[in-house]
Amino acid sequence: MPTVDDVLAQVGEFHLFQKQTFLLLALLSAAMPPIYVGIVFLGFTPEHHCRPSPGAAQLSRRCGWSPAEELNLTVPGPGPAGEAFPRRCRSYQVAWNGSGLGCADPLAGLAADRSLLPLGPCGHGWAYDTPGSSIVTEFNLVCADAWMLDLVQVAVNLGFFLGSVGIGYVADRFGRKPCLLLTILVNATAGVLMAVAPTYPWVLLFRLVQGLVSKVGWLIGYILITELVGLSYRRTVGICYQAAFSVGLLALAGAAYVLPHWRWLQFAVTVPNFCFLLYYWCVPESPRWLLSQHRHAEATQVLRLIARRNGQAVPAALQCLRAEEEAGEKPNPSFLDLVRTPQIRKHTLVLMYNW
C-alpha cells in the first residue's frame, strides 16, 4: 500500500503546486520579523534630556536663547568620562524664577562650579532629539523606567515559549490549516490593537498575545510546507522557508526608515497579515495529517488536487493510500518522546543548545 511520499514521487515532489504553496507560506515567514525583532525600531531610544522647568523655559524666552543655548545653560552636561546619564536623567534643582539669574550664565551666581549644584530627577518629562516617535518617547521609558522597554520584549519571548510548548498538541489535534488561520487572525488583530493602544500596559498585553500566536503560526507554516513536498525536497524548503525570515528583516528595516513613527510602523507591518486569511482558499490541509486522523477521502482529494495542478495523472494506487504509521492505533505522543532514545535525545539537546 502506497504512502503519501510514494504518491508525491509520482505526481510531483516539488512541482508547480508545491512551488506556489511554498511562495505563499514564505510570505508568512517574511512577516515574522516585526514581532521577533520589531522592538529595535518600535522601542528606539533617541538621545534625550530633561525638559526644562517652567521657570527655566520662561527665562529662556526672556533671554532669547536658542534651543542649543537653552540646553547648554539649563541642563547638566555629561558626567565623568563622557557619561551621559546626568544630562539624560537629572536636572538642576534651583529656583529658575529667581530675580538674580542673568542671561549670560544664569548658574554662575549660584555656584562657581556647576558640579556642586544639587541635581534631582526630571520633574517635567523629557525632550527627545528625534523627528519621529517610539514606545520609549511616547511613554517615557527612560532612566528609572528604562526596564519597562525590556519588559515588552520579555512579554514577546514569554509568549513564544508558552505558544511553542503547546504547538505540537494543537496542530495534531485540530489540524494544520485551522490552527494556521486562527493564529493569523489573532496575531493581526492584536497587532492592530497594539498600534492604537492608549497606555503602556495595553501595549504589553497585546505584545504578549502576539508572542503567543505568532511563533505558533510560523511553526505551523513550516510544518505544512514540509508535509506537502516530497522527501527529497523537505530539507530544502525548510531552509528556504527560514531564509524568507531574513528577507523580512530587510523589508522591516526599509519600512522603519520610511515610517519613523512607531504607531504607523506597527500598523503598516501588521495590516498585511489579514491578507494571509485568504490562504483558506489557497493552501490545503496536510494530507499526512488527514491520513493520521483516518480522513482518507479528504487526503485523497488533496492529493488529486496536487496531481491536477502539477499536470500529472492520478495514480491508480491512490485509493489504497495509507499513513506512514503502520500501527493499528493512533500514536499517543508525549514530551518524553524527545528523550526516549539515545539518537532523538542527542538531537533534542543539540537543538536546545543551538536555540
From TrEMBL:
Keyword Membrane: yes
Positions of the Major facilitator superfamily (MFS) profile domain: 101-355
Pfam families, A to Z: Sugar_tr
Transmembrane segments: 22-44, 151-171, 178-198, 237-258, 264-283
PROSITE patterns: MFS, SUGAR_TRANSPORT_1
GO CC list: endomembrane system; membrane
Name the UniProt record assigns to this protein: Solute carrier family 22 member 2
Species this chain originates from: Pipistrellus kuhlii (Kuhl's pipistrelle)
